[in-house]
Amino acid sequence: MIKYIPLLLPILVSNTVSAAEWVFNAQADPKFKYDDNELLREDKLDDFSLNIDPTLSLSRSLENSISEIRLGYRISRYQDLKELDKENPFASFNTTYATERSTYGLKLDYAERESRDIAEEDTADFSNISTTITKSISPSFSYRLTELDTISTSLSYQTRKQSDDSRNNNSILGSSSNLTDNETASLNLAWQHQYTERLNGGLSFTYVNYQAESDRLDNQYDSYSLGFTSEYHLSELWSVNGLLGARYLDSENNPAVGPQTSDQSTGLNYSISTKREDELNSYSISASRSLLPSSEGDVNQQDAYTATYRRNFTEKLTGSFSASYRLYKSADDLNSQETKYWDLSPSLNWKLAQDWSLIFSYKYRSIDETDGKNVDSNAIFLNIDYNWNGIRFSR
To answer: Which pTM does this prediction carry?
Structure first.
């Protein structure tokens, strides 16, 4: 993906009849961490680490469009667990274009990530240290039919591939990789109606096809869901969003050893979130149930509950607290395994100067699985945050 980024530059520099604002930015923000159970395993491995994500970005804005390219590396360095050292590149391109009634969007992403870094939304396996290579493309379109009605559609295609050195790295730490290459294609159609100044609602239909293939399995899942969506502004400071719908999942599993199995299941998908902000405080609470394709070759049902709170104590000192709980289980009846994951994280942000901040934080993580595994970890962080406004110019 990175080698194709230069091909996107003509999109940034085209249509120069109108004056365009360009912004070049760079950031790094090093984060120092100590974790007493880095891989969330029963045989604990503690270590100090440094994580830094040097990133360059270039954006171009016009009256009715904006485009941005981002390039960077996620670099991890450990004091003792040298096998965890990584340099993972990432790149993205995002553009939107609007007319009087229509909005077009396109997003391209390439990322190499440690599988355990994305486990919270994937496998819930935080001890697997393989590298996952993700590529995705996501076009979107929306059209305003009337002053009150809008229709929209979006497509997404994503591939995930496990790196060739995954098994070698895992064997060094005495673990094994069960992750598979997979691809996910999805289509969403939606209609939204503005009922009052405070209330809007509509319908949303989503189709998802997920395929996973390796030397041990060949699985395919088709998911269909239809739901009602709504958003209500209780006041200028307080809003509530919600979705309630039904889903149908058709599964077909073909293991390399053993009989072929298939299953059809139904269930509910929902999400509700509320957020309130004032000059000193910010609160948010959310609850959801959704289907998430897993890099282990199946589809999980995830129940997620999160809460966050932020308080501005002074102009220079801000405190925050977040908590989340997630329950993973197979979306079909072919696997009875369940995993419970939760974390708690308080933090303090101390603004040293206009552009500089120090962020102190603590994070508690815990995993409880039906096979008897029950582990937790404690980590402390120091993050140096530098907010550079970048270089701006027009032509």
So the answer is: 0.86
